[in-house]
Amino acid sequence: MHDYVLILNAGSSSLKFCLFCRESGGWLLESRGQVERIGTSPRISVRDAKGRIPINQKWGEDVRNGSDALTTLVAWLRLMYREARILGVGHRVVHGGARYVHPTVVTPEVLSELRRLIPLAPLHLPHNLAAIEAVFERLPDVPQLACFDTSFHRTQPPIAEIVPLPREIREAGVQRYGFHGLSYEYVASMLPKVAPQIADGRVIVAHLGSGASLCALRGGQSVDCSSSFTALDGLCMGTRPGALDPGVILFLFKALKLTANQVETILYEKSGLLGISGISNDMRDLLASSEPAARLAVDYFVYRAAKEIGALASVLGGIDGLVFTAGIGENSTEIRRRICEASAWLGIKLDVKANARKGPRISSPGSRVSAWVVPTNEELVIARHTGSLVGLLATHA
Predict the structure, then answer these.
(1) Where is 310: in which H helix or E strand?
(2) Per-residue pLDDT tens over the stretch 314-365
(3) Rounded mean pLDDT of 106-112?
(4) Nearest of 150, 154, 155, 145 to residue 110 by alpha carbon
(5) What b-and-e string marks burial along 262-271, b requiring 16 or more CB atoms within 10 Å of the CB?
(6) Comparing 70-79, 226-235, 347-356, which segment has the lowest mean pLDDT?
(7) Sign of dihedral through CA atoms 287, 180, 162, 255?
(8) Spatial distance between the Cα atoms of 3 and 307, rounded to a whole number of angstroms
(9) What span, in angstroms and rounded, lies between the C-alpha atoms of 352 and 361?
(10) What is the overall mean pLDDT for the chain?
């Protein structure tokens, strides 16, 4: 009998999962995969720890929602891993509000409290919480842990969290929270191994993907972040605008007479790279396109990133290192080059060949500020936390 933890990241039409096996050295990845196109033409794809693809096939049309997907996934795991014992299930939960500053064992009471935060992350939280509910039904005896994307940023000083609105509004929970915390937590944990010379210093981490943000680290702890009250603020993203004059929102309501649902759809699904280009929300498509609107979208993405890097550098009083991570940050040689060149005034000198190799160090030896590529692993962070929970529960059993 082998012991495992199951890690889930539930979206609107997909269910990503990882299975980690307990070994003497910690938790090792056994397999990762996703169920996608839920509700239309569901499909499961799975890779093992070595990147091999043991399965990539259509699933039954009866997988109509996330709950169905989880039911089918659990049955598939039991078939594929007959000797497996799932000790715990860890979930990526996008928003933990001001209360949840650490990974938290999920109880019905905690689940009820998290539902109150849905307006803060309407695209993510409903699916995150639905997965938790489904596990309660399918695996009622297995403990669950919620790991929050906002938790890592609770080390920020109060001045960085404040939103300049009346006190009664701020006391209702309106503050800067920050996101992608699980990614930043992993990168911070890796810096002593990958880049020990900057690990205890002033570092800006650029999590660049379909969702994008920047985090200022001092001594491995978050002191500020480009994202804010919701995952809409900060950098330009795939379909989200990033920083936006609040007057624009008033204009949408008052002058264009749009409804709240229409505005929400625009902000979460039709803006950002997609909104500027009118072509795609995928950076790969835009870089490959010769259309002026595609070039404009890429230019704006780089412009906003460089601008925010400068802002966070001022918060830190200068920087010792810049780290790229996530889908675009890890894989786009062009975007890294352009952001580094736009940030050259900070003392970054790019090594073109190292950048083409994806690092890990992509700055030249004489660069006053070093630049790096550190692949993120949010699932491993959740597995570690879930594994610690399992050990703690066993100790007190």
Answers:
(1) helix 292-316
(2) 999 999 999 999 999 999 999 999 999 999 999 999 999 999 999 899 999 9
(3) 93
(4) 145
(5) eeeebbbeeb
(6) 70-79
(7) positive
(8) 47
(9) 11
(10) 90
- Note the CATH number of domain 2-148: 3.30.420.40
SS3 109: helix
Calpha distance 289→309 (Å, rounded): 27
Number of alpha helices (DSSP H) and beta strands (DSSP E) in the chain: 16, 13
Say if residues 58 and 43 touch (Cβ distance below 8 Å).
yes
Q: Pick the catalytic residue from 3, 68, 149, 320.
A: 149
Question: Is residue 71 over pLDDT 90?
Answer: no
Q: Identify the band that residue 72 occupies on the pLDDT scale cut at 50, 70 and 90.
A: confident
- Return the structure tokens found at 225: 């972040």
Beta bridge partners of 57: 44
CA distance 37 to 60: 11
Homologous superfamily of 196-378: ATPase, nucleotide binding domain (3.30.420.40)
Domain 2-148 identical in fold to domain 196-378: yes
Mutual orientation of helices 378-395 and 181-194 as an angle, nearest 10°? 90
Question: What b-and-e string marks burial along 40-49, b requiring 16 or more CB atoms within 10 Å of the CB?
Answer: eebbbebbee
* Spans of all domains in the chain: 2-148, 196-378
Look at 23-32, 48-57, 254-263, 272-281 and tell me which has the smallest mean pLDDT.
48-57
Mean pLDDT for 5-25 is: 82
- In angstroms, what CA-CA distances link 250 with 168, 174, 233, 257, 260? 21, 18, 16, 10, 11
Q: E strands within the chain?
A: 2-10, 15-23, 26-36, 43-48, 55-58, 84-93, 104-105, 144-148, 202-208, 212-218, 221-225, 321-325, 370-373
Beta strand segments in 149-257, E: 202-208, 212-218, 221-225
Q: How many residues in total does the chain contain?
A: 397
Which residues, listed in sequence order, are joined to residue 369 by a DSSP beta bridge? 348
In the block, tokens 């920050």 appear at 178
- Is residue 149 flagged as an active site residue? yes
pLDDT grade for 35, boundaries at 50, 70 and 90: confident
